[in-house]
Amino acid sequence: MSDMSAKVVVVTGAASGIGRACAKAFALAGARVAMLDRDAETLAASAKPIEGALGLVTDVAQQDSIEAAVRATREAFGGIDVLVNSAGVESTYTIERMPLQDWDRVLDVNLRGVMLCTQAVVPAMEGRGGGAIVNIASVAGKRISFHGGAAYTASKAGVLGFTRHAAFELGIKRIRVNAICPGPTLTPMITRNATEAEIARTEAIIPLGRWVMPEDVAQAALFLASDAAAMCTGTSIDVDGGVLVSNGSSYQDYFARRK
Length: 259
Ligand SMILES: NC(=O)c1ccc[n+]([C@@H]2O[C@H](COP(=O)([O-])OP(=O)(O)OC[C@H]3O[C@@H](n4cnc5c(N)ncnc54)[C@H](O)[C@@H]3O)[C@@H](O)[C@H]2O)c1
Description:
By secondary structure, the chain is of the alpha/beta class. It has one domain: NAD(P)-binding Rossmann-like Domain (Rossmann fold), CATH 3.40.50.720. The chain has helices at about 15-30, 40-45, 65-75, 100-125, 150-170, 190, 195-205, 215-225, 245, 250-255, and strands spanning about 10, 30-35, 55, 80-85, 130-135, 175-180, 235-240. Strands 3-2-1-4-5-6-7 form a 7-stranded parallel β-sheet, with helices on both faces. Helix 1 crosses helix 8, helix 3 (about 65-75) runs parallel beside helix 4 (about 100-125) and helix 4 runs parallel beside helix 5 (about 150-170). The radius of gyration is 18 Å and the shape is globular. The model has no long low-confidence stretch (mean pLDDT about 95). The structure holds nicotinamide-adenine-dinucleotide. Nicotinamide-adenine-dinucleotide (NAD) binds near residues 16, 39, 42, 59 and 189.
């Protein structure tokens, strides 16, 4: 397991799902973790069982809110080594019906939030001689999002582009920037909208036979943030149970056509 002791890790969207699993995994590996989320109540409940965690109510779409959280983290822990950008939202509109406010809401959190958080942590990472940023993108950034609509797909493709560019620009400061593309991951983002039948249908087209769990994504984040990935930057890891290679086909349909 990666040793993260002496590391200070900031996780956005840390109250729930993938962000929460990342906060837990980094804390278990010895890190001091600042958990940022805009949902105060869920954040308090999620931070409580994580030893030494600092819960900071933050809106990643707001620059002053992020700057306050970064300041609070530096004051409490003395610096920042790792940022995991996990805060994310989706849209339910089609393109034809999409109110501009909804497009902006999704892009503001999923893409602008990643840029703002990156911008805010760079001076702290520079002060430590380097750092690692892990952006939770999505397989939607490489294909399309079934649940999140066009705004979500565009935001995640944007995160992958931003990851590559930031990796180049920040390499000179020894800050590595990588992304993870989770496939269908069983978190509240899914369970609050999908029926049990939909959840079962999705599972049937995942080649590895089960939904991705938030902990699967957290392990990849731990790897990308650790010294084991010292020469990885600008890349992305698909933690998707094989959905990208399967093209959405079920094994039943596939083998029905094979001799
Ligand atoms: N669940 C999936 O299938 C899946 C697949 C691929 C990628 N992702 C991505 O993983 C990330 C985490 O999603 P999840 O599935 O854990 O969802 P989730 O809804 O369980 O967690 C998202 C968290 O982000 C927080 N958040 C939303 N807007 C925020 C804002 N403006 N400022 C601060 N916090 C904010 C929410 O309060 C919530 O706690 C997202 O970026 C999502 O797009 C999820």
